[in-house]
C-alpha cells in the first residue's frame, strides 16, 4: 500500500521467495534439488540460483551441493516478511503482517492503514520507531534495531465492555508464548501494561481505541519487546530498570519465530474476550 503522507516504506517479499524458504524450512535436514524448486516456481534452475543469491543478500545462508541441491543453514536475525508469514502459517494463524524497517509508530501506522481501507485484522511490525509512545503519552525508547515493535488492529464493532480486559489477557497470552523461548526465566505482568522478568521491564503494551456512540469501532494493541538488544546500550536512565530477553536468556532469540508467536498470542487474547471461550478466570490466568 503506497504512502502519500509519510516517508516510511513497507518492505515485502515475493511469492517466489516465500515458496523457496517454505520448501527449505519444511525440510531442514535434507537437501532440496534445484530442479524441484524450479518446477515448483515454474522457472529455470538458473533463475532459482538467482533468487537464492538475492536471499543471501538479505542475510540467509544456504549450503549447496552438486547433484543434491540446497538446504538452509542460517536465517537472518532481522524481521523478514516471508519468514513471519512462514511461521504464522505453521501456527495456522491468518494475519496480514506489514513490515517497515523504520516507522514513526506502529500504532500510528495501523491507524493510517485504516484510512487506506486495508481489511482488518492486520499487524504492523518494525525494528525501529522514531516516535514510539507508551502509556499516558510517554516516549518509548525504540532506537535499537534488535527489538520488536508490533501493533495489531481489530475492528470489533461491539460494546466496549467486552474488551475491557483485553490488554491484560494479551499480556497473559504473550508471556505464555514467549516463555517457550526463555524457559529458565519466569515472565510476569506488572499492572497495568508492563511485562517483567527478573524484576526488570522487558516489554510495554499500549492499547488505543476509537468509538462510535456505544460501539467500539477499532482497537489497536501495540507492544514493544526488548528482544535481542544489549541493556548496556540502553539510555543510562533505563539500565537499572529495563532488560531484554537476550540478556536473561544468554543467547539471541529467533526474531521471526518470536514475532509469529506474539501475533498468535494477541489474536488468542482477542478471541478470548470476543467469544469468552476460555475456562480460566482472569485471576487464575494472571497468577504467577
Number of domains: 2
| Cα-to-Cα separation, first versus last residue | 42 Å
CATH class of the largest domain reads Alpha Beta
Poorly predicted residue ranges: 1-5
Helicity, as a percent range? 25-40%
Outline the biggest β-sheet: 7 strands, mixed
Tell me the radius of gyration: 20 Å
Number of extended strands:
9
How would you characterize the overall build of this protein?
With 288 residues, the chain is α+β, with helices and mostly antiparallel strands. The protein has two domains: 15-74, Arc Repressor Mutant, subunit A (Orthogonal Bundle); 81-286, Bira Bifunctional Protein, Domain 2 (BirA Bifunctional Protein, domain 2, 2-Layer Sandwich), CATH 3.30.930.10. Helix content is 34%, strand content 21%. The chain has helices at 15-26, 34-41, 45-57, 81-90, 106-115, 166-179, 245-249, 255-275, 282-286; strands spanning 61-65, 69-74, 96-100, 122-126, 148-154, 187-190, 194-197, 200-212, 215-225. Strands 3-4-5-9-8-7-6 form a seven-stranded mixed sheet, sandwiched between helices. Strands 1-2 form a two-stranded antiparallel sheet.
Amino acid at each position: 500500500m503506497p504512502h502519500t503522507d509519510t516517508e516510511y516504506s513497507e518492505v515485502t517479499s515475493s511469492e517466489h521467495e516465500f515458496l523457496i524458504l517454505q520448501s527449505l524450512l519444511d525440510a531442514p535436514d535434507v537437501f532440496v534439488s534445484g530442479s524441484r524448486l524450479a518446477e515448483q516456481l515454474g522457472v529455470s534452475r538458473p533463475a532459482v540460483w538467482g533468487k537464492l543469491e538475492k536471499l543471501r543478500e538479505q542475510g540467509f545462508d544456504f549450503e549447496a551441493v552438486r547433484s543434491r541441491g540446497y538446504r538452509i543453514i542460517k536465517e537472518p536475525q532481522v524481521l523478514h516478511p516471508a519468514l513471519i508469514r512462514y511461521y504464522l502459517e505453521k501456527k495456522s494463524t491468518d494475519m496480514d503482517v506489514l513490515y517497515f524497517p523504520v516507522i514513526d509508530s506502529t500504532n500510528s501506522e495501523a491507524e493510517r492503514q485504516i484510512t487506506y481501507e486495508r481489511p482488518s485484522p492486520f499487524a504492523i511490525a518494525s525494528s525501529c520507531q522514531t516516535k514510539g509512545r507508551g502509556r499516558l503519552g510517554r516516549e518509548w525508547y525504540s532506537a535499537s534495531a534488535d527489538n520488536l515493535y508490533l501493533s495489531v488492529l481489530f475492528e470489533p464493532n461491539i460494546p466496549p465492555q467486552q474488551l475491557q480486559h483485553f490488554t491484560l489477557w494479551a499480556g497473559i497470552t504473550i508471556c505464555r508464548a514467549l516463555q517457550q523461548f526463555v524457559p529458565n526465566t519466569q515472565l510476569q505482568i506488572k499492572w497495568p501494561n508492563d511485562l517483567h522478568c527478573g524484576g526488570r521491564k522487558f516489554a510495554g503494551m499500549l492499547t488505543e481505541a476509537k468509538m462510535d456512540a456505544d460501539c467500539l469501532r477499532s482497537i489497536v494493541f501495540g507492544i514493544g519487546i526488548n528482544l535481542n538488544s544489549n541493556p548496556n546500550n540502553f539510555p543510562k536512565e533505563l539500565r537499572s530498570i529495563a532488560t531484554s530477553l537476550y540478556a536473561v536468556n544468554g543467547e539471541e532469540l529467533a526474531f521471526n519465530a518470536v514475532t509469529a508467536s506474539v501475533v498468535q498470542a494477541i489474536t488468542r487474547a482477542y478471541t478470548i474476550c470476543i467469544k469468552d471461550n476460555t475456562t480460566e478466570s482472569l485471576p487464575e490466568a494472571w497468577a504467577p
